[in-house]
Amino acid sequence: MAVPRKKVSRMKKGQRQSHDALARPSYIEDKDSGERRRPHHIDLKSGKYKGRQVLPPKAEA
Length: 61
Prior knowledge:
alpha+beta, 1 helix, two-stranded antiparallel ribbon
């Protein structure tokens, strides 16, 4: 069984754990519709991605 030779210092433990924090998802305002959407995702209201029509636009209720 593997046993560590030395105790891991607080600094090394903190450096390792610094990448474990959860980041909030980022949102951007769409240029065409003005709706908030995730970067690199389809705008569900207009159905466009990178200026191309990918999905049919949603009908407003």
